[in-house]
């Protein structure tokens, strides 16, 4: 039989060719699933302790059985040694009583007994193989010196015990009894226990595996429901929400997904509003130009003065269109995921002085006093063009939406980590309900007044994006009729 294995669509496909062609598909993705890993952990949690207990019981039983058998043989050898000394067996091995005891001992324990005298000569061998030979073995020599010994050979399955033959009167060691006893019965019992233990372990593992898979299947149900809910909102956000309180983790995940869903809804509504506003803002100047052009076309012999007036109005609308498009392009550049920033060391004091110098003609037209207050020299890592755009918009708005003979105060300060720019004015202020929306694109607190001022509703959005690109933050505080203060905080060192 031949077998081919390949991967297709995330599955292992095994084709066995023989009399009957079989195709076995095994999902690779299942091995990566949390369900499989939970089941695997449960199986290991059972298998490792059960396996350790299984092998521990086998080793413990074997050690205990060998210990008892060794103590028993040692005791029998001690009794036999006393009898050997009583019947002077080392001098005369013809004693039927002793020989009977030796035969009985070897028969009961399926072993071999050798009697060695103090000259290391084997005077008796129950196997009748080595009688008369010299026994030079470490255990025998140590026993003659008064140290009884025993050893267990688990590979060949036997216990070897050496016991001294003591002279009761002089306590002199006259010889050694060397007994080798088979442990086949112990090994057979261990094998039986191993087979039965393996069967119990296998059945237990099978049951635990099935139980673990079933439990993991039910444990993963909240996640499957959440996945289904996500699938339902793929084509639209709708009114679907996540409600999974089975586990603390799923509850936290559901809450996070609900917040994300709300954020996506807001972004989607913002996108739709942005498209609508862009269309409206671009359409308004075009409509004005069309009305003016149609007026010129429908009139005959238009006076030069009226012609010039209409053309001036058309030029103003074109300029307004150009400002809107320029601001939109600035926003697009600032909205890029990886904006192209030209970071360099910039003297912020000089930068603000230059911005205020450029805007002083606008302030002079409204008799607005513009003051810069620098508390210390500040040098920061910035994109000079983009941060100039942000500060220019803030100061220009403070001038435009101010009262006659008002003031604009710009202050600069810094600590060891950030520099701070505050733009405060004595203008018309922003109602509290509008303050959270002022950074949205095309949002105007007073639309009619804003258009009179020539605003596009994009200045604060541009300023906010430029500040965020520099890992900074911008906040607004205002009271209607009392003025507005914008506070900008930007790190001195730009960190990617």
Automatic annotation (TrEMBL):
Residues 217-269 form the HAMP domain. It holds the Pfam family HisKA. Keywords: Kinase, Membrane, Phosphoprotein, Transferase, Transmembrane, Transmembrane helix, Two-component regulatory system. InterPro entries: BphY/WalK/GraS-like (IPR050351), HAMP_dom (IPR003660), HATPase_C_sf (IPR036890), HATPase_dom (IPR003594), His_kinase_dom (IPR005467), HisK_dim/P_dom (IPR003661), HisK_dim/P_sf (IPR036097), Sig_transdc_His_kin-like_C (IPR004358). SUPFAM superfamilies: ATPase domain of HSP90 chaperone/DNA topoisomerase II/histidine kinase (SSF55874), Homodimeric domain of signal transducing histidine kinase (SSF47384). Its EC number is 2.7.13.3. This is histidine kinase. It comes from Mediterraneibacter butyricigenes. The lineage of its organism: Bacteria, Bacillati, Bacillota, Clostridia, Lachnospirales.
């Amino acid at each position: 039989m031949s077998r081919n294995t390949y991967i297709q669509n995330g599955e292992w496909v095994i084709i066995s060719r023989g009399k009957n062609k079989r195709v076995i598909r095994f999902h690779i993705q299942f091995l990566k699933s949390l369900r499989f890993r939970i089941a695997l952990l449960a199986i290991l949690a059972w298998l490792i302790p059960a396996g350790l207990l299984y092998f521990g019981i086998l080793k413990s039983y074997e050690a205990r059985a060998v210990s008892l058998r060794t103590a028993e043989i040692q005791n029998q050898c001690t009794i036999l040694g006393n009898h050997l000394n009583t019947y002077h067996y080392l001098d005369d091995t013809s004693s039927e009583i002793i020989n009977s005891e030796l035969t009985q001992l070897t028969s009961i324990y399926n072993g071999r007994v050798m009697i060695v005298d103090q000259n290391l000569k084997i005077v008796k061998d129950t196997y009748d193989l080595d009688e008369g030979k010299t026994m030079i073995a470490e255990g025998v020599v140590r026993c003659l010196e008064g140290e009884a010994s025993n050893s267990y050979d688990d590979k060949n399955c036997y216990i070897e015990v050496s016991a001294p033959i003591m002279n009761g009167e002089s306590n002199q060691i006259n010889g050694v009894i060397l007994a080798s006893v088979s442990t086949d019965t112990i090994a057979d019992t261990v094998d039986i226990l191993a087979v039965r233990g393996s069967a119990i372990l296998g059945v237990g593992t099978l049951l635990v595996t099935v139980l673990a898979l079933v439990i993991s299947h039910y444990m993963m149900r909240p996640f499957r429901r959440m996945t289904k809910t996500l699938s339902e909102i793929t084509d639209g956000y709708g009114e679907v929400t996540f409600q999974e309180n089975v586990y603390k983790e799923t509850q936290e995940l559901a809450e996070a997904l609900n917040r994300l869903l709300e954020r996506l809804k807001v972004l989607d509504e913002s996108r739709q509003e942005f498209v609508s506003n862009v269309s409206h803002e671009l359409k308004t100047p075009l409509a004005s130009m069309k009305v003016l052009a149609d007026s010129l076309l429908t009139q005959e012999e238009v006076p030069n003065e009226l012609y010039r007036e209409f053309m001036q109005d058309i030029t103003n609308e074109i300029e307004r269109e150009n400002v809107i498009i320029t601001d939109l392009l600035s926003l697009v550049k600032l909205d890029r995921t990886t904006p192209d920033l030209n970071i360099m060391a910039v003297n912020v004091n000089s930068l603000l002085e230059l911005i205020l110098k450029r805007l002083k003609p606008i302030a002079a037209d409204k008799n607005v006093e513009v003051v810069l207050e620098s508390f210390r020299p500040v040098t920061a890592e910035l994109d000079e063009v983009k941060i100039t755009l942000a500060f220019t918009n803030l100061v220009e708005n403070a001038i435009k939406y101010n009262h006659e003979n008002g003031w604009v105060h710009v202050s600069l300060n810094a600590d060891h980590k950030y520099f701070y720019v505050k733009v405060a004015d004595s203008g018309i202020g922003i109602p509290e309900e509008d303050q959270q929306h002022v950074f949205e694109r095309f949002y105007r607190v007073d639309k009619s007044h804003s258009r009179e001022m020539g605003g596009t509703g994009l200045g604060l959005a541009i300023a906010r994006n430029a500040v965020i690109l520099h890992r900074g933050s911008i906040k607004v505080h205002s009271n209607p009729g009392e003025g507005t203060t914008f506070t900008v905080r930007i790190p001195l060192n730009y960190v990617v």
